[in-house]
Amino acid sequence: MSATPHTLGWLGKFVFANGTTIRVSSTGADVTFNDGSGSATWTNDKSFMVSPLVDKGSGEVPDCDLTAPVAISDAYDAEDVFLGVFEGMQITLYLVDWTDPGDGSMQRGPFMVSEIIYDDRGRIGAFECRGILQRAKEVTVEEYSVACRSALGDQRPGYCNVPITSPAWLCPAVVASVTNRGDFTITVSEPHAVDGWCALVAINWLTGNNAGTYSQVRLWTQSSSRVQIWGLAGRTVQVGDTLEIIPGCDKRFETCLAKFANSINFRGEHLLPGRDFLNGAGL
What we know:
The chain is mainly beta. 7% of the residues lie in helices and 34% in strands.
């Protein structure tokens, strides 16, 4: 901190939910810096700016805002914001003397991205960041529900525990023909891929222009291998693009029993009396 102010600058490490890591510098130049995971080049990015950090030391969760004019950024573009690749991202900040990064640093974070705001043209992205203790300060309750409260695939004890990322549940496929970004056919040999099984599923794009993003299936017709998704894929879909079909769940006990054989882990109260019973005449 003894360095003169004009030699201090922020470095930012963006770790995406899929494991991809981007290292950027706001110092006006590329910086070689070791954050503990090995020496790496932190690329200068004119879009990367950090608001004043708030850390009062009074038990409040520290927070900050990062602003990125994404349309002109070298690290990411406007489409990335709309495609949701920043969801679940962690950001760690380092304040360094960019003329001598090895002299030490002040680390802030990691922060969790809690909200992402961008204008209607996708030119400006503002990322609201909260300290990782934010979740510990949140009050979480569960309500009685006919529908299951578990997220499909949640591996915590007592939750869903269906191994949806195992080959037994994933359906690999290849795009065979394209009508548009929301309507195409696929080649899939997985026996699970019947009409009902593919209801409420998601597509994980593995290769092609949409690699690393997800789409939600609106309609699947097994006889014609036709896939229709909600909205449009973020980028152009091409013949030969590879993808994985991830199973979905409508949260009903019947689905849990018949589709996943997992009724023992059903986290709903489907046997509770309904409104008709509660509103009926007494005996």
